[in-house]
Design goal:
Length: 142
């Protein structure tokens, strides 16, 4: 596989994360992360796909529609491993008691990826909050 092919495959993996979250496709996160993934949200940390998925669900299952927009991908390849950074702008809409409220966040995701038999997967993700606007109460609990 050429470097360009690897870069496109990594971007597709990173984009799959946004798709899974916005579609609430929780099993699909196995297409993004390794089973032993470590995620550092700064405020809390998770280890393992099941724990990480549960944490993400605890926030997004409690809010209305969301849209994760990704861009500015920076990827460094090193054989069967890679590092990436990309920006994410997320709009969350409230539901239930939070209907009519919004919460928007701007994040930089920093990933350490590994090539697996199934394709590229993130084994470590650090989430760096850049700024936020709105009411965080829009996020969960379900």
């Amino acid at each position: 596989m050429s470097d360009a092919d690897d870069r496109f495959a990594i971007i597709a993996t990173l984009d799959r994360y946004a798709e899974c979250l916005d579609q609430r496709d929780w099993p699909g996160l196995a297409d993004v992360f390794t089973q032993d993934v470590e995620i550092d949200w700064v405020e809390w940390k998770q280890k393992g796909l099941a724990e990480s998925t549960g944490s993400i669900r605890s926030y997004l299952d409690g809010c209305g529609p969301s849209q994760h927009l990704l861009g500015n991908y920076r990827i460094e390849l090193d054989g069967d491993s890679a590092r990436s950074k990309h920006y994410c702008r997320v709009m969350h809409m409230g539901k239930g008691d939070q209907k009519g409220k919004t919460y928007e966040s701007w994040i930089e995701y920093q990933d350490e990826l590994v090539r697996t038999e199934a394709g590229w997967r993130s084994r470590r993700r650090t989430c760096v909050a850049i700024m936020e606007e709105g009411d965080r109460a829009v996020l969960g609990p379900a």
